[in-house]
Amino acid sequence: MFYLTFRAADPQYLKLYTDEVAAFEDRLRRRAKEKRDAALAEYEAEEKVALLLLLFAVKQKRIAAAPGGLDPQEVYESLPEEMRAAFDSQDVSRLQEVAMSMDREVFSYHFQRCIDSGLWVPNASAEDAEKAGETEEGAAAEQQS
Which GO terms describe its molecular function (predicted)? Predict the structure, then answer.
């Protein structure tokens, strides 16, 4: 009966039909949008977890490479501004000036953390000189041979 009245192009049935089709299309679009949004949210959550795991692994590598088991990046970021500026300039005399101007305990605390994280290597110039001396001795021994 429906198709017969539809064929006859009864305006009431035609309107009912187009309304039902439009409602069905709206339900389909709404459901597709919900599914797409849910899939996108799940993907973003997985990406966040993967990024956090990667950052954690990088941090663990930095800590493992540090002699005292402290994260060099965290130690650097926790330094007072003037001490950080002295490290940035890589000027020992500037660091000594900061040591004189700061409270001794505060400077000692931060400086020890720098040593433990590997930001500062005590007697690094002496070690470099020893390595250079060993290299020169090795080169001289090779020349004598």
Answer: heat shock protein binding; protein-folding chaperone binding; unfolded protein binding
Cα separation of 13 and 5, whole Å?
A: 7
The total of structural domains in the chain comes to 2
Alpha helices in 66-120 (DSSP H): 72-78, 81-89, 92-101, 104-117
Instruction: Please say whether the beta carbons of 99 and 107 come within 8 A.
Output: yes
C-alpha to C-alpha distance for 83 and 91, rounded to whole angstroms: 11
| pLDDT tens digits, 89-138 | 888 888 889 899 989 999 899 889 888 888 888 776 655 556 555 555 55
Q: Do residues 86 and 60 both lie within one domain? A: no
The answer to whether position 43 is within a domain reads yes
Domain hosting 60: range is 2-65
Q: End-to-end distance of the chain based on CA atoms, in angstroms?
A: 112
Residue 32 covered by a domain: yes
Task: Tell me: do 35 and 16 sit in the same domain.
Answer: yes
Of 118, 30, 11, 134, which Cα lies nearest the Cα of 74? Answer: 118
